[in-house]
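Practice problem: predict the structure.
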Amino acid sequence: MMSDVELEHYLRENGYPEHMCRAGRAGLVALWKRFVEDVEKGYKRGLEDYRNDLDVRALIEQVGLEKEVEAVDARFEAILVNRDTRVWESSSGNRFWDFGYPKNASGELLEELKDEGLVDQP
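Answer:
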């Protein structure tokens, strides 16, 4: 696992926003938790933002913080439907968060999922 200094350096070197660089481990975990809470309440943004948030989860895995988000992951996984449909490829492999979409998807997110043919339409 990366040290806090290594993590901050990695994030900065890879062009992450300054607020993420400064926030470190706790910030990454908090971002994922806030995203999952947003999804549970009803995600208000579009597919591009949704995919950016999935990238945060991939980054959490990449820097070795999976154990810190296990409970949040379980909540996120529980709200996903259409689990055979890949909506993003945030990292190599078949990570659970890249498949399916929230069962309560609506508004912009749902429309954009439909536009990309990712939602079965009746």
